[in-house]
Design a protein that fits this description.
The complex is a heterodimer of chains A (313) and B (268). Chain A is mainly alpha-helical. Chain A has 16 helices and 2 strands. The chains are: A mainly alpha (313), B mainly alpha (268). At the A-B interface, helix 1, helix 2, helix 4, helix 5 and helix 6 of A face helix 1, helix 3, helix 4, helix 5 and helix 6 of B.
Chain lengths: 313, 268
């Protein structure tokens, strides 16, 4: 093919742009990034800024109108006894849920990481992903059915002869309520059920990275299974556990649907945000309440980072 | 060789853990057939199919269902476009601010929904934007971007740069390469990401309650039924529909992205 030029002539705008992108890759990068960054920057970051601004406003107690002037009054309200109660209760619940999730999630992650092969690996993966992704409200609803006074748990307890025990437990002030579905324990169980799957995958990833040779070395040096677990597996998997705990902790911290549907109507941060912006019409206080989980999570992320959790994500 | 055998304790604990995750959902199906509509009596006193018919004729279910489909479809479309653009930028190049951008994409689902919801609510209030379908879509698209992005970027990383160069060597310009080489290879990942985004949006309730005003999406309808129940089995029928709409995309997405290693250009 003598005489055919090595460089083809440009056939139109597409070719010219391609040449431009080739010579200046930054132009292409900018064109790719601008639309999504404008969206996230304006819609998301813009809203977060609006949230912060709103939290520094206050509400006129007489007219109920938001005064758009800078003040710390709204934040001061967070330190009232009943509001501090809400914050402490939420943090305590998030901590307990995270702890329980870690205990339940660990064997699943451990088995999936160390023993499941081939087909079973896929079964475990789907077995975690399906409940994690399937409808949040449907899952909460399922527990309303389970925990109801006339529901399946009571039925099982009665048939197992544990009915009186359950009834006595529900009489405990801190524990129970009229039924499990109106008790703090019910709230706790549902929180664990909904957010626990988020812990399994980071945990599993961390456990998969523990080299099998180290376990063999540990066994060769005479360690029992328990010792190997305690002093080799657990420390090496800890960053993954902490990484998983970020999700359970953060998501429990902000949830307001579960305590609304299952529990003794004790308030949590999310519920407070929802009620203050809705029926109470106090947007500034709702915004200030929404800033609390952000602050708590910043501290939590700081600690998690020092424990190496970010390398495990 | 150290033999890899799980102790019975681990096996039982793992099995119980998985059972704990799966069994509760079965009750949703059972209660859709119960004859008892005033309580959650177990075992159901009788079984019937009538609630499916009742749900079909309930006029208050269709508008929320339609709204949810609309919102999810548009939010997914926006998320696919924006997610694909970011994935294209992040897959190949390193640039200043890259880590910050990946954090920014992740933030809307890493922070609790109540924060995203309240933030949007504050912004709408300050700018006097009235609630509409679009305010719902704005929120949904924002947290759907990351889902599409994750799927697309994983596929792009596995694609060898060689096929793009080969396409250029054969005389295709950037747009032709995108149309005939990149898009077919990305297709199933985008489809998987899009379906997951659709499922996430269709089911979302936390952010939506802050951005919907008086309108009801299907999850908001369900939430109202949970707080003030009437004809409880009808709620179960709707729950089954919602469950199916979220469950099937997850399965499909899994099968679409599972054989990722077989993507063109991966074998070197």
């Amino acid at each position: 093919m003598l005489g055919t030029p090595a460089i083809l002539p440009e056939r139109g705008i597409g070719d010219r742009l391609t040449a431009l992108f080739w010579r200046r890759p930054r132009v292409l990068l900018a064109l790719l990034l601008i639309p999504p960054l404008v969206w996230l920057g304006v819609v998301y970051l813009g809203s977060l800024v609006a949230l912060l601004l709103q939290s520094f406003y206050s509400i006129d107690e007489f007219s109920g109108v938001v005064k758009q002037e800078f003040t710390l009054k709204t934040y001061a309200e967070l330190f009232r006894a009943q509001n501090l109660d809400i914050i402490l209760r939420t943090v305590l619940m998030a901590a307990l849920v995270t702890l329980a999730s870690a205990i339940i999630a660990f064997p699943i992650a451990y088995y999936a990481a160390r023993f499941a092969r081939g087909r079973w690996k896929a079964v475990f993966y789907l077995g975690v992903m399906l409940p994690l992704w399937s409808s949040y409200l449907v899952k909460v609803y399922a527990w309303k059915l389970i925990l109801a006074r006339e529901g399946i748990l009571t039925w099982i307890a009665d048939h197992a002869g544990a009915g009186p025990l359950l009834a006595r437990a529900l009489d405990e002030q801190w524990f129970g309520g009229a039924s499990l579905s109106t008790s703090p324990v019910g709230t706790f169980i549902v929180f664990v059920y909904i957010w626990m799957p988020y812990m399994i995958l980071p945990m599993q990833a961390a456990l998969e990275r523990v080299p099998a040779t180290m376990l063999e070395a540990s066994a060769d040096l005479g360690a029992s299974r328990a010792q190997t677990f305690r002093s080799v597996i657990l420390p090496l998997a800890l960053p993954g556990i902490v990484a998983g705990s970020i999700f359970t902790f953060s998501l429990t911290l902000g949830d307001y649907i579960i305590p609304q549907i299952i529990g003794n109507s004790a308030r949590f941060i999310g519920l407070a945000v929802y009620q203050f912006q809705g029926t109470a019409g106090n947007l500034p206080l709702a915004a200030a309440f929404a800033v609390v989980p952000i602050m708590i999570m910043l501290v939590y992320l700081g600690i998690a980072r020092r424990m190496g959790a970010f390398d495990a994500l | 060789m150290h033999s890899e055998q799980a102790g019975p304790g681990v096996k039982i604990a793992a099995g119980l853990g998985l059972a704990f995750l799966h069994l509760p959902i079965l009750l949703i199906f059972l209660y859709a057939f119960t004859t008892e509509e005033k309580s959650y009596q177990f075992p159901p006193p009788g079984l019937t199919l009538q609630w499916f018919g009742v749900a079909w004729h309930r006029a208050d279910i269709w508008p929320p269902l339609w709204l949810s489909v609309q919102v999810a479809a548009i939010a997914t479309a926006v998320a696919i476009i924006l997610g694909m653009l970011i994935a294209g930028a992040m897959a190949q190049t390193r640039f200043f601010g890259r880590d910050q951008i990946s954090l920014l994409i992740l933030l809307p689902i890493a922070l609790p929904g109540v924060i995203t919801g309240m933030a949007l609510r504050s912004a709408f209030a300050m700018m006097d934007i009235p609630f509409s379908v679009w305010t719902i879509i704005l929120g949904h698209a924002t947290f759907c971007i990351v889902i599409v992005y994750n799927n697309a970027v994983a596929r792009m990383r596995r694609l060898s740069g060689g096929i793009m160069e080969a396409s250029a060597d054969l005389g295709a310009n950037g747009f032709q390469t995108f149309r005939h080489v990149l898009l077919p290879n990305l297709g199933s990942a985008l489809l998987a990401g899009g379906m997951l985004a659709f499922a996430l949006s269709f089911d979302e309730v936390i952010v939506t309650t802050f951005t919907a005003g008086q309108q009801s999406t299907l999850p908001i309808w369900m939430l109202n039924e949970l707080v003030r129940p009437r004809q409880r089995p009808v709620t179960n029928v709707v729950a089954i529909v919602v469950f199916a709409v979220t469950f099937l995309p997850i399965l499909a997405a899994y099968y679409l992205t599972r054989d990722g290693d077989a993507t063109a250009g991966a074998g070197k």
